[in-house]
Design brief:
Layout: H1 3-32, E1 45-46, H2 72-77, E2 79-80, E3 92-96, H3 97-100, H4 108-112, E4 119-121, E5 131-134, E6 137-138, E7 145-149, E8 152-153, E9 155-156, E10 165-166, E11 176-183, E12 197-203, E13 211-217, E14 221-228, E15 231-232, E16 235-246, E17 256-268, E18 273-287, E19 292-293, H5 294-298, E20 313-328, E21 332-349, E22 364-385, E23 388-411, E24 414-439, E25 443-460, H6 463-467, E26 474-492, E27 495-507, H7 510-514, E28 523-537, E29 541-552, E30 557-559, E31 564-566, E32 571-585, E33 588-605, E34 608-610, E35 617-626, E36 631-640, E37 643-644, E38 652-653, E39 656-667, E40 670-677, E41 685-693, E42 715-718, E43 724-734, E44 739-747
Parallel strand pairs: 7-12
Antiparallel strand pairs: 1-2, 3-11, 4-5, 5-6, 7-8, 9-10, 11-12, 13-14, 13-44, 14-16, 15-16, 16-17, 17-18, 18-20, 19-43, 20-21, 21-22, 22-23, 23-24, 24-25, 25-26, 26-27, 27-28, 28-29, 29-32, 30-31, 32-33, 33-34, 33-35, 35-36, 36-39, 37-38, 39-40, 40-44, 41-43, 42-43
Length: about 750
């Protein structure tokens, strides 16, 4: 047994023991607490069908927000509203825990799919960050989608595998109280990576009941969770622990083992203010089937769930500690957050198999170790003068990453040579100001300005790259101003017409920014605009329609697999979105999210102008049931249309259409749940890429390609010296077949 596995096993065992030791005494203390203790007031509550996207701006996002624990009845039958006016001023919405409970959720990636138009797909192993598709972006692992937990950034700058790498494996789904979704670069509070959009996951501050849950099912899946959240006067606590083990459907079992620990203490300083301290720890270890070439599967030489390199996979850890403060009353709000994270990743992959090294293979190891620290603070004040009201916000953000990362040639997870090694210190500072002016309750104007400064400091520790005249050492800074504007006209109290405009950006990898030859632009600007309407009809139907466009200066991204930066020209995206929520009966609800996108290079890039892997069609619809006698469930359909895998559309990434179901029932202190993924057992490809690779059975790379070197549906690639480089083909991670999981939860 490897040292990594021994450490994981030890940590997992410790997590289970610690969780059990904590829950039992805290549950007893909670039961003995005085029933006469003061509790915060419960917010306004309505049934789920009455809820549409809430008017929430990022300035209102607070990690320390006072959120009283709902009663058992509230948690099962109601949804909370935090604003008087239900319609959003822009493309933003909030999804509550009670709505999440109606979805088939088995992992954190399932939570993120509640964002309209967002598709997540697995990418070579359960412990690797998901691939995110939103608004015509294949954002890879997070390059153009900003993810945060309680305001703490999940995206990693200058990451060993890819810019903006956002791994959410350290988040427990049961922790999440609500999900705040912001689409487009229209929000002054949001900065790096928030081009296609941003998602903030907000954790609970307390639990109404302690619980222990056990989940298991197909593919040797086993997951156990234990949690408690008692309150003592002005103190609220939450403690949760998780351990899981799963093999997946693959011929090379994933053996994905992970543990999670989370603890949070919130102290209510007064009825208006609170302070919170939270700590968490995560560790995971897994294997993967990798990304297999379609040509081998179609030829019958490789099974659909097969593999070519059994060493693929990796291990990852993350520890967080953060302190937050909030002061809020009817006229003003002050929030502050300080955080520190420790992160490690070892990722083993083989994308090209034997194209570079015909003897030992092309296996690579990507290593990333870092400390991440930051500070966020904002102040908001409301003033009303006759028929005018002003909502003013200002804020500052600061972030520092101290990174050691590298790229290595490996075989069976043993390093052979070093391809790249860097020390990166990246600092970012930001300030923003926003003013919302309301005229007589039917016209709102929101203007904002954001200023970001980045400093990149890189030391190239590998002599190999420097000797080639491509040294990646140096210091460089850059700044960007991002204006934002929104106009909202409300001809009726339940209808908003809105126009959005905004400039956003994503940063590029520091190693590409400072390199000696052809350095890339430090900050890639995006310009977005949107026209839309949100309305509620007959108190039963919520509708939202929007038309949007976004231009990106360049699709510049760091290619961690190659140890270099790939530059493309400018792009433009156009899209249409439709969102609908309807209350059919008092206990039956339906929803529909439909997006149509078109992504193109503004100038011919290569042999075509299609943006590879950009989604063109996404659809999500479903029926949800929530009865007053404890039965809840849903049936959901999700679709991702076919999309180009190459710029000239020679290769196509196959679409996928899936049907999932969930049913749950609570009786007294026991709850049973059953979820079924891919009910129809459809065979589909999850993450897909166009990749040039060579197998051992294919022609040598030391000679020109012979006739018929590659199958008809693929494309022969030739190196600069005229020799055979490999076959360009669709490589994919197979999607899971039908997956049945059961869950038992006991409350205390």
């Amino acid at each position: 047994m490897s040292v990594t596995k021994m450490n994981l096993l030890r940590n997992w065992s410790l997590a289970a023991l610690l969780g059990s030791a904590i829950v039992c005494p805290l549950s007893a203390l909670a039961q003995s607490a005085s029933p006469n203790e003061e509790r915060p007031e419960t917010p306004q509550q309505v049934t789920p069908a009455q809820v549409s996207p809430a008017q929430v701006s990022p300035a209102q996002v607070s990690p320390a927000q006072v959120s009283p624990a709902p009663t058992e009845a509230d948690a099962r039958f109601t949804t909370m509203v935090v604003a008087d006016k239900p319609m959003s001023a822009a493309s933003s919405l909030t999804v509550r825990e009670q709505d999440l409970r109606l979805r088939p959720i088995q992992r954190v990636s399932d939570l993120l799919r509640v964002a309209p138009g967002l598709i997540t797909v697995q990418h070579a192993g359960g412990g690797k960050a998901n691939q995110y598709l939103l608004r015509g972006f294949d954002a890879d692992h997070g390059t153009d989608l900003a993810l945060t937990l309680d305001g703490i950034p999940i995206n990693m700058v200058s990451h060993a595998h890819g810019q903006g790498y956002a791994d959410s494996s350290f988040i427990l789904p049961e922790l999440i109280e609500r999900i705040e979704v912001f689409k487009g670069p229209y929000f002054a509070e949001l900065g790096d990576f928030a081009t296609a959009g941003a998602i903030n996951l907000v954790t609970k501050s307390a639990l109404p009941e302690a619980f222990v849950s056990v989940q298991g099912g197909m593919y040797h899946t086993l997951r156990a969770t234990v949690a408690a959240g008692p309150s003592f006067g002005n103190v609220r606590t939450l403690i949760m622990a998780e351990g899981s083990d799963a093999d997946g459907p693959f011929d090379n079992p994933e053996r994905y083992r992970k543990y999670n620990l989370f603890a949070k203490l919130t102290y209510d300083l007064s009825t208006r203010s609170s302070i919170s301290l939270a700590v968490s720890s995560y560790g995971g270890d897994w294997y993967a089937s990798g990304q297999i070439p379609l040509r081998e599967v179609e030829a019958g030489r490789l099974g659909f769930f097969g593999f070519l390199d059994p060493s693929e996979g990796g291990s990852s850890t993350r520890q967080n500690v953060y302190l937050s403060y909030q002061l809020r009353d009817a006229k003003q709000e002050l929030t502050a957050l300080a955080y520190l994270s420790r992160y490690q990743l070892r990722l083993y992959s083989n994308f090209t198999f034997f194209a570079r090294d015909p003897i030992q293979g092309d296996g690579i190891e990507q290593s990333d170790e870092r400390y991440l620290a930051g500070l966020r603070a904002s102040y908001r004040r409301k003033v009303r003068i006759d028929w005018l009201s002003f909502d003013s916000s200002v804020g500052i953000n600061a972030r520092f990453d101290d990174i050691e990362n590298g790229l290595y040639h490996q075989q069976q997870r043993e390093r052979i040579s070093t391809s790249a090694a860097h020390q990166v210190r990246e600092t970012s500072l930001a300030m923003f100001a926003k003013e919302e002016i309301s005229f007589a309750q039917w016209v709102r104007l929101i203007v904002g300005l954001r200023a970001d400064y980045f400093l990149f400091d890189v030391v190239d520790r590998a002599d190999a790259l420097s000797s080639l005249g491509n040294a990646q050492s140096g210091v460089r800074g850059d700044m960007q101003l991002s204006p934002k504007a929104t106009l909202v006209v409300s001809p009726h109290r339940s209808t908003d017409l809105f126009v959005n405009f905004g400039r956003g950006f994503h940063s590029n990898d520091a190693r590409g920014v400072v390199r000696a030859v052809d350095p890339v632009t430090p900050l890639t600007a995006a310009l977005g605009y949107e026209l839309g309407v949100r309305t509620r009809l007959l108190e039963r139907l919520d509708l939202a329609v929007s038309f949007w466009g976004l231009s990106l200066d360049s699709e510049l991204v760091w290619v961690g697999d190659e140890g270099t930066t790939e530059a493309s020209s400018a792009t433009r995206r156009l899209g249409f979105e439709l969102e609908g929520r309807v209350k059919i009966l008092s206990w039956l609800f339906a929803d529909l999210d439909l997006t149509v996108n078109d992504a193109r290079f503004t100038h011919n890039a290569g042999n075509g102008n299609a943006v590879a892997l950009a989604p063109r069609l996404t659809v999500a619809t479903g029926l949800s049931v929530q009865t007053p006698f404890g039965l809840r469930g849903s049936l959901r359909f999700t679709g991702l249309g076919a999309r180009p895998a190459t710029e000239d559309e020679f290769l196509i990434a196959q679409g996928a259409y899936l049907l999932d179901g969930f049913v749950g029932y609570r009786w007294r202190a026991m709850e049973l749940g059953l979820s079924i993924e891919n009910i129809t057992n459809s065979r589909y490809r999850s993450a897909q890429f166009a990749t040039t690779s060579r197998l051992q059975s294919e022609p040598s790379t030391s000679a020109p390609p012979p006739s018929g070197a590659c199958p008809e549906a693929t494309r022969v690639q030739v190196s600069s010296d005229g020799n055979f480089a490999g076959c360009e083909d669709v490589h994919f991670t197979p999607g899971s077949p039908i997956n049945v999981q059961g869950k038992l939860t006991l409350y205390f």
